[in-house]
Amino acid sequence: MRLMDHTRLPLWEAALAHTAASGIRLHLPGHGGGPGLPPELQRLCPEYASFDLTELPGLDDLHDPAGPILEAEEMAASLWQARRSFYLVNGSTAGVLAMVLATCDPGDILLLPRNAHLSAYHALILSGARPAYLPVATDGQGFPLNVTAAAVEQALARYPAAKALLVTSPSYFGVCADLTAIAAATCRHGVHLLLDEAHGSHLDFHPEMPAPGRNASMRVQSWHKTLGALTPGAVLHLHCEQYEQARLRAALRWVQTSSPSYPLLLSLDAVRKRMALSGRALFDELYQNAAYLRGKLRTELPLLEREALKEAGFDLDILRVTILCGAAGIDGRQAAYLLAQRGVNVELAQKGILLLVAGPGLSRSDAVKVVRAFDGLPQKQVPAVFDCLPEPLVAVLPREAAFAPQEPVLLARAEGRISASLVAAFPPGIPVLAPGETVTRPVIDYLAAASDAGMVLRGLEPQGKLRVVCEGV
Ligand SMILES: Cc1ncc(COP(=O)(O)O)c(C=O)c1O
Description:
This protein is 37% helix and 14% strand. The protein is of the alpha/beta class. The protein folds into 3 domains: 10-276, Type I PLP-dependent aspartate aminotransferase-like (Major domain) (Aspartate Aminotransferase, domain 2); 279-373, Aspartate Aminotransferase, domain 1 (Alpha-Beta Complex), CATH 3.90.1150; 398-469, Molybdopterin biosynthesis moea protein, domain 2. The strands form 5 sheets. The protein has a 7-stranded mixed sheet, sandwiched between helices. The protein has a 3-stranded antiparallel sheet with strand order 10-12-11. Strands 15-14-16 form a 3-stranded antiparallel sheet, with helices on one face. It is globular, with a radius of gyration of 23 Å. The relative contact order is 0.11. Pyridoxal-5'-phosphate (PLP) binds at residues 91-93, 96, 117, 119, 168, 172, 196, 198-199, 222, 232, 234. Pyridoxal-5'-phosphate is lined by residues 91-93, 96, 117, 119, 168, 172, 196, 198-199, 222, 232, 234.
């Protein structure tokens, strides 16, 4: 790790110098540092507005940094042990898009497991890459875990021309793939490993946590999700020494605003400093609080457990507490309603699962209150909610389907047509159909059964219609 003075805040220093010196602002943004804001906003964020700056002299340029932004990014790179880090003002969404756009030419094969975030499917549309999907392993009840190293090996053997593999680890539920084995396999085949580490920015700071993805060619992290940055502050770390940076820089320009939010960039600067100076202590305490919470909850409720996942070749970030409440006869949505009345708001509530996210703000006394709120939740029969997802059948490239003439048809009458939409059932939220895929009978049956079971279907139009590609065009 390069030695750096992590007590410094290069971007803050530049912004403070600018605000101390500035008078009447006859430049963008038009609110002039506050006076031009509507009264509600003036009351809400008087200080914030004076730091809502733009690329003014001394404040650098996110898209071509040479001053304090570059310095701040270099400090992040030293801390996360990257060759180069790029601050993102459009979330990990922008990072995933840029990784794919920078790596894949139109028609190139991108390997990706089906649990990829929506931004990966959008990257397929924008880049014109050809997807080859890897299966996502499940537990005994069909709960989605992550991709296995064996599935990666098989895909690499089957698609020797693949350009890159995109993996999401940790998953939304904190399940981590075996990145050491996966990176070794991609390295052997000369394929780039693109890592969506949106949920794992903190893993570098605690030895008891699952291993972070420093062995990827590049990785993106949502610092707003786990480190306390402002939404949607995120970072892309480039690790691969051979990777040509020019295309990556261009791709970042393609997907990000030309008016980056300075308060958001300042929040990234501050997060980097905090993680450098006290990240280990912060996450030590949080780790203990999460372990306490899990220990108390598991006496009454089944949890997704680290030991069981390790036995299956995965790992778990214990700060994600997935409660498999359906197995205990508790309806997650009803439970979430009662918990909210008791002052506890959960991240995700579905029929059979509740997800709690322990973030840097969770104190031990909060954890104690959460445990108490779980006392005496009503039990009833809850049907099993997970089922094996049908195999995707890719007919045309996602990009072709997305730009083709389309029409809505009733799902029940869509067999054999090519979907123009992405349709997912929650839980588990993994796409059942993506643009360019043939609508098969198992897909129709799965979606009908999911709807009957009260699962939420996203991606359909009113009256359950599906947008499909027009025939004979
Ligand atoms: C796995 C994963 N990747 C990427 C993203 C996008 O992150 P952001 O909200 O920072 O754009 C999300 C968002 O929830 C996600 O869950």
